[in-house]
Design a protein that fits this description.
Blueprint: H1 7-20, E1 26-31, H2 36-52, E2 54-62, H3 67-84, E3 87-92, H4 100-118, E4 122-124, H5 129-141, H6 146-149, E5 155-156, E6 159-160, H7 168-177, H8 194-209, H9 213-242, E7 243-244, E8 247-249, H10 258-272, H11 278-287, E9 294-299, E10 302-307, E11 310-314, H12 316-321, E12 333-336, E13 340-343, E14 346-352, E15 367-371, H13 387-393, H14 398-401, E16 406-409, E17 412-415, E18 428-434
Helix pairs in contact: 2-3, 2-7, 5-8, 5-9, 9-10, 10-11
Length: about 450
């Protein structure tokens, strides 16, 4: 007969789960490595199973980082799953991980796949109050904002952490009460990992100042989470007034301050799924601080592209093709009376027109040429403006300029459709339609 977990630990988790509503009836995936914390998670979940209506499924992932211990780890987890009456799923990485991020990504991909297949309400992990303290301290050293200071949440993105109310000493006691010796991962002692240095060196020193330091840091994380949630709600409202399809209109955001940066960071996370670190958030805010010209910035998840007052995410094909556009373009097209042609999404028709006589070069021409811009281009006339300046004054995004048509007669640039004034009526007329526009307008 299975021995129940210690009543104190169970009551703590029960209360924490009810306050945060993180244990819901139905299938739940327990992420179990075989270590002390995840073993305690299994034992406590088993004790609370009937009360919360849980259907337990244990999931174990072999990262292929410790080949000699992998079989023993899997066997231990299988025995543990059988001990609590849960089903078992085992996954294995295709190759050993290159770093901790690779290992984590592979593990969560397996867990999420298992949860989808089982129709699970959540994935439960064995993160404790000690893990929370380590996480917050690591975030502080990296210059985190409020979101990082909040550490791990009770529930986030389908992951629930019912043991955040317990310390590591509590999970050790749970396993000891069940007379179960968990598996030990020797890499948890290696000081080459930043988290282990915080665990074995930083926290023990802080504990000399406050023996209950992990609980104190946990309270700080909860307070930061509450403030961060309020900030996130405000950012969502602010962003809602500025977002337009796949872009942000910058002059609809607050001129400066935390609200502006929070809205931009939220927009990036919504569009890319990547949460920006403090330095990346600062860089995005700096990019959006000006509305002159066009600038871009590579960030986790994509490239931010600001074109005057509009901020968008550059499409992958746009990013890879940006250099190619400078050398690979459709050639010029020549139009004579009665001809129609398309060029980069514009349609041109050169027709006879009834109107007053004019000395306009375009209106008296027998043929015109439509082409893209070239270095040094100037408009026709004794004081012809630089085409580059005309585009800038008209706030044409840099990415659109190579594909914007220039109408020339001979070597003279006489018209930039949609920007410079159209020619006066005369013997000839060049009808222009940009694809997707209503020809009646």
């Amino acid at each position: 007969m299975q021995k129940a977990a210690p009543l104190g630990a169970v009551n703590t988790v029960r209360s924490y789960a009810r306050v945060h509503s993180i244990l819901r009836p139905g299938p739940i995936v327990l992420a179990v490595s075989g270590g002390t914390d995840s073993t305690a998670l299994c034992l406590i979940a088993s004790t609370l199973r009937e009360e919360f209506g849980l259907v337990l499924h244990v999931a174990h992932f072999d990262h292929r980082a410790r080949p000699r211990a992998a079989a023993a780890d899997a066997a231990f987890v299988a025995e543990l799953a059988n001990h609590i009456g849960a089903t078992l799923r085992v996954g294995r990485a295709n190759a050993p991980p290159k770093n901790e991020d690779d290992a984590r990504n592979a593990r969560y991909e397996f867990l999420r796949r298992a949860a989808r297949e089982l129709g699970a309400t959540a994935i439960a992990t064995g993160h404790t109050r000690d893990d929370q303290a380590e996480t917050v301290l690591l975030h502080i050293t990296r210059g985190s904002g409020l979101t990082g200071l909040a550490g791990m949440r009770p529930e986030n993105d389908g992951i629930v952490r019912p043991l955040l109310a317990l310390g590591r000493a509590d999970t050790v006691a749970v396993c000891a009460a069940a007379k179960i010796t968990p598996r030990e991962d020797p890499t948890n002692r290696s000081l080459r990992f930043a988290r282990n240095r915080v665990r074995h060196r930083v926290l023990p020193e802080l504990a000399k100042l406050n023996p209950d330091v992990t609980r104190a840091i946990g309270r700080l994380a909860e307070a930061a989470a509450a403030v961060a949630d309020i900030s996130a709600d405000h950012a969502a409202v602010t962003l809602g007034a500025a977002a337009s399809q796949d872009a942000v209109v910058l002059d609809r955001l607050p001129a400066r301050g935390e609200a502006r940066g929070a809205a931009l960071a939220l927009w990036w996370e919504q569009r890319t799924g990547q949460r920006l670190a403090a330095r990346h958030r600062a860089a995005l805010t700096q990019l959006a601080a000006s509305t002159e010209g066009s600038r871009s910035l590579d960030l986790p998840g994509g490239r931010a592209l600001r074109e005057y007052t509009t901020l968008r995410i550059a499409a992958e094909d746009q990013r890879s093709a940006s250099a190619a556009r400078k050398t690979v373009k459709d050639g010029p097209i020549t139009l004579e009376h009665g001809n129609t042609a398309d060029w980069h999404g514009w349609r041109f028709a050169f027709v006879d027109a009834i109107g007053t006589s004019s000395d306009d070069a375009l209106l008296n021409a027998e043929r015109v040429i439509v082409r893209g811009r070239r270095p040094g281009d100037r408009m026709n006339g004794p004081r012809g403006a630089k085409v580059q300046d005309v585009f800038t004054d008209a706030k044409v995004p840099a990415r659109e300029r190579d594909a914007w048509p220039l109408v020339t007669v001979g070597a003279a640039i006489v018209w930039i459709p949609g920007i410079t004034p159209p020619p006066r009526s005369g013997r000839s007329a060049l009808r222009v339609l940009r694809m997707g526009e209503d020809p009646e307008k």
